[in-house]
């Protein structure tokens, strides 16, 4: 790993900047003409870093992949497995694919989540939304609030089921990258991630309405779960505007990979999404591995103006040592073999006495292929007092006493 050191306020790597490299261009070329999806992304589930992208920041309709957000919000708002929801007339009128609920019926909310995620039932989505948010519009507000909390700037929700929709603020849409980040939240970051994985990983689920008068069985239509070893979760989607969409996650060899696809073909090309998902997952498994990117940096001492000289001498300059606050022993990151990390340091060139121990003097940044992936504060490792008249007088007195004692 190369280390680049810049001192002064103008130096250093620009946080958040991304610089194109020959390696990145070669990486993108490996899938040129091979992926069916108009928008595709592969991200590292642990860090959220994009490992491969194709128009990953272009907003597009997302169809029923929307339901991962509906599911995680419902889980986070649920008070328990026995919580029930009542079916409204509007919910009962939702188009296929639907469970076939009827106005006035009551269902356990958790059973509806299996209906939502395994069979992608549109009526179940509305029952859930109306129960949690008070109305579809109220639930959409919760969805957009969560998107904002997650930093998703190009995502806009109108419906809980992903049916094509538009209003005066825009269309129901997201980007491949932000859809993948939503899945990352659902399976890793949310306090309800285990419940989400339990539901989306189930092969089937049987249940009744609360009265026990109707029986249902839902089967999981996520073929990816049986396609690759380590498949964790996923959600399909299709509408006329969105085309076939998919978001899925895999965990194998200590890696968590997430793929998101938008506009991945239209009928009769239902299987394009599986081809793209497998290709991207295999690429991540083959070309990426964890590497420790941290190397302990070395620093020059900072001169301290009017500071007490080192070793309390009457003459000579004063300096202060610096260290990395909360310095990591290791910084393991999922990288390609050809990717390079750089360490950059921004620090003060000079300080004025007095200087306290632990005082901030700058920061150190770790960048991978131009993208900053870690920052740490630089602080003083010791204190330096001020060299003034009274300190000098005291030192002269000490020297005078020492000389007389030696006589």
Provide tags for this entry:
27% strand; alpha+beta; disordered N terminus; elongated; single chain; 407 residues
Care to describe what's here?
The protein has 407 residues and is α+β, with helices and mostly antiparallel strands. It is built from 10 helices and 21 strands. The strands form 7 sheets. The protein has a 5-stranded mixed beta sheet, with no helix packed on it. A 5-stranded antiparallel beta sheet has the order 3-2-12-11-10, sandwiched between helices. It has a 3-stranded mixed beta sheet with strand order 15-14-19, with no helix packed on it. It is elongated and about 105 Å long. Mean pLDDT is 89; it is low at 2-29.
């Amino acid at each position: 790993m190369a280390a680049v050191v810049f001192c002064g306020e103008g130096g250093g790597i620009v946080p958040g900047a991304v610089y194109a490299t020959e390696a990145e261009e070669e990486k993108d070329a490996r899938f040129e003409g091979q992926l069916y999806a108009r928008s595709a992304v592969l991200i590292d589930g642990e860090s959220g870093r994009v490992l491969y992208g194709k128009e990953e920041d272009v907003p597009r309709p997302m169809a029923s992949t929307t339901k991962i957000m509906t599911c995680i919000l419902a889980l986070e708002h649920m008070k328990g497995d026995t919580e029930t929801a009542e079916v409204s007339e509007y919910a009962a009128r939702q188009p296929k694919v639907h469970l076939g609920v009827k106005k006035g019926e009551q269902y356990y909310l958790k059973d509806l989540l299996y209906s939502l995620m395994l069979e992608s039932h549109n009526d179940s989505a509305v029952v859930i939304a109306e129960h949690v948010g008070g109305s579809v519009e109220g639930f959409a507000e919760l969805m957009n609030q969560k998107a904002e909390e997650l930093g998703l700037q190009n995502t806009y929700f109108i419906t809980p089921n992903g049916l094509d929709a538009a209003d005066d603020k825009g269309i129901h849409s997201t980007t491949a990258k932000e859809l993948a980040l939503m899945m990352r939240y659902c399976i890793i970051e949310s306090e309800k991630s285990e419940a989400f994985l339990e539901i989306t990983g189930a092969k089937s689920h049987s249940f009744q309405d609360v009265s026990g008068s109707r029986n249902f069985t839902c089967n999981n239509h996520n073929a990816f779960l049986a396609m690759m070893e380590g498949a964790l979760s996923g959600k399909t989607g299709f509408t006329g505007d969105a085309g076939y969409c998919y978001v899925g996650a895999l965990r194998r060899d200590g890696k968590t990979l997430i793929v998101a696809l938008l506009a991945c073909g239209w009928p009769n090309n239902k299987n394009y999404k599986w081809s793209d998902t497998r290709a991207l997952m295999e690429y991540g498994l083959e070309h990426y591995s964890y590497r420790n990117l941290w190397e302990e940096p070395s620093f020059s001492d900072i001169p301290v103006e009017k500071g007490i000289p080192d070793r309390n001498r009457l003459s000579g300059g004063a300096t202060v040592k610096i260290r990395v606050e909360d310095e990591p022993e290791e910084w393991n990151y999922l990288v390609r073999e050809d990717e390079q990390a750089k360490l950059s340091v921004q620090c003060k060139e000079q300080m004025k006495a007095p200087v306290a121990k632990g005082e901030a003097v700058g920061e150190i940044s770790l960048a991978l292929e131009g993208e900053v992936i870690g920052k740490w504060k630089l602080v003083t490792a010791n204190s330096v007092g001020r060299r003034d008249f009274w300190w000098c007088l005291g030192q002269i007195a000490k020297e005078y006493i020492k000389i007389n004692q030696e006589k």
